[in-house]
Structures are given as structure tokens and as C-alpha cells.
Amino acid sequence: MPQLAQRVGRAKPSAIMVIAEKAKQLKAAGRDIINFSIGVPNFLPGEHVYAAARESLSHDSGQYGSNRGADALLDAFLTHIEALGFGGYTRSNLSIGIGAKQVLYNLAEALLNEGDEICFAAPYWTSYRDIADIVGARVEVMPCGPEQSYKLTPGQLDAALASKPKVFLFNNPSNPTGMVYTGKEIAALAEVLVRHPDTWIITDDIYNAMVFDGIGYHNFVFARPELRERLIFVDSLSKTYGMPGWRVGLIAGPESVAKALTTLNSSHITSLPEVITAAAVAAFAGPQDVPQAKCAEFAGKRDIVVAALSAIPGVVCPRPQGAFYAFPDISIAFGKSHHGVSISNDVEFCAALLEATGVACVPGSAFGEPRAMRISYTCPTVQLTSGLQRIEQFFSALS
To answer: What is the 3-state secondary structure (H, E, C) of 99-110?
Structure first.
């Protein structure tokens, strides 16, 4: 019998979706489940987005679109990134994809040969390692534990870049930790990057509109503009605009990279549908009141989460300042048991928590940090408060 390609054996199902599916099954069986596992914003875009989609359908051409992206979408994205601080880009610096995940996969295909090295900090988004494994890249992880607030230091980056990895992948604000780098911290890392000219830089910054406490969003090219020649900025509609199911991702970067992604698009996705494009243009160019309001709402929920976790003896949770995640160190529970169920690691902790309390969280080992678990806190406040109370009660029952 013919065999599957070797790369398929390197592909793994998303650890996040495994937990989410288990929670869904328990809920279908009648359990009272509070799901903190899946990273969705849990709000819908403004009515102007739907109006644009309906209008598009009324004069749909039924034709293929541009491999790079429709001019209207590219122009709207250019205006969007100029407001962030990315000036001087043109359409030739841009390309689209079916969500940021597919954009990142395209970047891996475009930049990494089999055996090339990619480096990124841990905790990391699960798909970073998964994509690297599929394309046959070697991964160097830079551990950034809770003792350093889950943030990469210039010294760590300098040491990692000394081996001349092909790609450095950076995430700010962070999934899974919610941590945000200050302008000063970004500038210090940018100084290191300037000294290592042989490495591509990908900044996966899809949560850039969800930053709290007045920190603001910062990028390496703001501190050192010369890095533009090898930096690729990744953005998405999913989190900012409450549109994860619409699947729109974009990049801004060197023309050669944008051209490579556009060529790859011509061989698989071809283009975004017209109706999706129209909705995306409306999201970027239309009123921003919904994402702004949700950012403020998530900052308030962050405060609720941090207060609850801080009240649990032994639990350490660096204060997140963006996105909608908290990433507490729960290792105080390891070596203990809950009503006879032994807990020796994060996976066993999350399994016991789900079974005993109906609260679904993702084990930190899925993100490269086995001392922690991820909480996605976008659910309604009543559910959030109830879920946090259940977590507190679970800890209090450990022996």
C-alpha cells in the first residue's frame, strides 16, 4: 500500500483544539462546562462589516481575485499599519492569507529550507513548533519563565542569534501569556537584532490593538528602521475585530517576501473571496468603536483574573498587559492530589480540573512551559467569575 509523506507524521493536532473538543463533548453530555481553553475573542464585528458583506453579495462577480489581495484591501491595510507606525510601505510590500496561521505557514515555506533553524521564546503559540516540524526546520527555544515575566532578554536573544538561525519569530502581545513588551524593551532587543544581519525577523503581532495600561504597541522597526529590510509584520482580523471565522491574515515586509507569499498563494488558495474582502476592508477602514470598547472590557476582565489568581497561595501569575490570556504558574499543585486523584504535572492538573470542576484550561506544556496553564478570559463576566471560583476551590481541596 502506498505510504503517506513523511511530513504528515510530523504534523500534530492542535493541543488547544484537543482540550476544546473534550470540553465540547462533556457539555454535550450534560456537564456544566466553563471553557477557558480556546483563544477566541467572543464578540462580533460592528454592523458596518456585515453591511459591507451584504452589499458585496449583491454585485458578486463570481471571479477569481488577486493572489496578493484586492487593491481595496491592501490600501485599507496600508492605512491601518501607518496608524500603528509602519510608514513607507506600498502594495508591493503586502500579501494576504487565509488567516494568520496560513500566513505563518507560507512564511515557513518561503524562508526555511529543511534543516534550517528557527528560534523563538517559550512560552510560544503551539503552532510555531508544529509548523516548524512540518517543514523540517530545527527549533531553538529560548526559555522565558515566570521568574522573568515570560519575556525574552537581550542576552538570551544575542546568544540564540550567535548560531545564525534563518528565522527569529517574535510574538507581541503574547499568546499564551498576555505579556506586552514596552518601547524600551523592544528597543533593547532591536539593538541585538541589528548586530545579527543573517536572520529573518517575523513579528507575529496579531493582538497589537489589545494593549492595556497605556503601554502602547511597539515594533523593532520603530526603534531601528534599517531592520525593515528583513522584518515581516503579521496581522489578522481575527482577534481585533471579532472575526476569527472570516479567516483573513496579512503581512507587511520586504518586497521579495511579499512576492514569494503571493506566488505560493497562486499555487493553493488563489485568493480571498469577494465577500470576505469587502468585510475586511470595512473592518480596517470603518468605525473602530467595537475593538476599542472590547480592549477596555478585556483590561477589566484581566483585573478580575489576576485578583483571583493572586489570592491562591503559591500560584504565580505575571500581570498580563494585552491580548486576553493569563498564564499562571500552577506548579505548587504538583505532587499533590485532589480527592484521591494524583497530580504530577500540568496535563494531569488540567485533566483533574476539568473532570472535577468543569473548567477547561490548556496545559502550559502545549506552549513550551510545563509549569503553567493558559486561561482565555473572553467569556461573559458571570462565567468568568464562576470559573475562577471553581479554580480557587480546586486548589483549596488539594492535599
So the answer is: HHHHHHHHHHHH
